[in-house]
Amino acid sequence: MASTAKPVQDQVGRMEAELGGVVVLDFGGQYTQLIARRIREQQVFSSILPCTTSMEELMKLEPVGVVLSGGPSSVYDPEAPKCDPKLLSLGVPVLGICYGMQWITHTLGGKVERAERREYGRAQLNLENASGDSASDLFAGVARSLRVWNSHGDHVMMLPHGFRTVGRTANAVAAVEDRARKIYAVEFHPEVNHTEQGTEILRNFLFRVCKAEKKWSGAAFIEETVEAIRKKAGPTSRVICALSGGVDSTVAAALVHRAIGDRLTNIFVNTGMLRKNEFAETLEMLRERLGLRVIGIDASDRFLARLEGVSDPEIKRKRIGAEFIAVFAEEAQRLQREEAHGEIGFLVQGTLYPDVIESISVRGPSATIKTHHNVGGLPANMPFALIEPLRDLFKDEVRRIGRELGLPEEILVKHPFPGPGLAVRLLGEVTGSHLVTLQEADAVVVEEIRRAGLYEKVWQAFAVLLPVRSVGVMGDGRTYGLTVAVRVVQSDDAMTADWVRLPGDVLERISTRIVNEVPGVTRVVYDISSKPPSTIEWE
Q1: Domain-embedded: residue 14
Q2: Catalytic (active-site) positions
Q3: Is the terminal CB of the chain with fewer CB neighbours within 10 Å at N or C?
Q4: pTM
C-alpha cells in the first residue's frame, strides 16, 4: 500500500489548457482559494499553483491571466515568498492583490514600507482616472467611491516606472496599473463579500482585460474529476471511503462511485461523537436512498477511551484522526481477507478547502489556524493514498456539484458538521455523560431552528457544552448546573461568518426547552462572535 498521502489533482493542468483559465499564484494568503472560487463563479476555470512555480510550467497551462494572492509576509523581509520576475514580462495580464500588489511594486523598483497606520477591516476607496479615454478597465462601471476590505500592515510608498495610481484610501495607495503591460494591482481584497462591487472588479479583469471565455461548469468538474479518479485508482485497486452522511463525504462518494463503481466500499464509523440518532438514520438513508455499499462500524467506546483525560483541542483532533485511520486500516485488512478482490490502496475523504487552509500550509506559506482530523490530524505514515476530489472547493460549490449528480436535497442542505464531531463542541474532557447532555441540547437547537423555518437559511446551528457550572434555582431549590452555548452563524463559504440575529421568541424557546428537557443544564447563552476573530467551531 502507499505510504504517503497524495490528493487527486492530476486533472488541473489538462483542464487549464483546454479551458483557457486563470492561474492564481499563492503567496500564502488565507483568501487564496476564495479568489479561485470567485473566478469559477464567472464560469472561468481557475487553479492555484505555488508562487514558486517556474514560468515554463506556468505557460504550459496557457493561462489567459494570472492573479497574485495576498499573504502574511512583508516583501522586504529576507524570507518573504517570491515569484519569478519573468511573469511581469510575459505579456499575460496580471492582477496583484494585497501582498501581490506589494510584490509587483517591490520587484519593479517601487518602494514598500511598513505603514504608520495599518489597515485592517473596512475602508473607503476613492477612484481616480475613473472616466474618459484614460479610465481604468479594472474599474469600469464601478462606483467612484466604495467600501472595501483591507488586511495589510505595509503600504506602497513609491510606484514603479510606468505605473499610475487609480485609487486611494485615507491612508494608502489602494489601486495602481500599468495599462501598457496589462499589470493591475489593488491593496484591498475584491474577492471577499465585504468589498462592495468586488465581483464587478474581478469580472472586469477576466473579461475586459484577459478576454476570458465562459467554459467552466459543474458538469465539466464532474467529468474531469471522474476521469482523474479512474486514472488515479487504476483498473484494479479498490477504494474505501470515510462516509459520514454529510454533504461533503456523500458528494465525494458519489463521484468515486461514478468513476469505479463497486470497487468502492463506504465505511461509516460511529465515533460516539455524532448527533442524536445520527448513526442509525444515516446508515438507512445511504443504503436505501442512494444505493451505496456502506458498512457501519460502532467504535464509540474505542474513541471515548482514546479521549479519556484529554482536554486540549488539538490533542483531541489528532487522536480522533489517528483512530479513524486505525479503524479504516483494520476494516481494509478484513475486507481483503474475506473478499480477496484486489488491494485496497486508497482512502476517500470529503475534505474541503476551508478544512485545508485552516489546517496546513497547502501551496504557499499560509498560517495554520487549527487541525482538522481529515487534514492535519492524519498520521504521517498512512496505509492509504488519499483521494480528495473536493479539496479545492467550498461548501456551496460542493452543493452545486451534488445537485448535478442528482443527490437528494435533504443531504445537500444538511448543516456542516466537524470531522471530530461533538468532541470539539464539548469543551474540556469528553465523557459519556457529557456527550449525552450535548446531544440532547443540540437536538433542541436544530428542532427549533427547523420549526422557525430557518434551517435552510442559516449556515450552521448547534449547541456547545461549556466546562462552566453556575448557580440556578429549580423548584425553589438551589442547583449548580452546566452551561450550554448556542451558536447560529451565516456564511457563504466558511472562510468568514457572522452570527445570526435570531428572533427573541426563537431564542426563548431554545433556552426554555434546553433547561427544562436536558438534565443538568441550568444556563443557556448565545454566542454573538463573528469569524474572524472567532472560528465557527469553539475548538
Answers
A1: no
A2: 98, 189, 191
A3: N
A4: 0.69
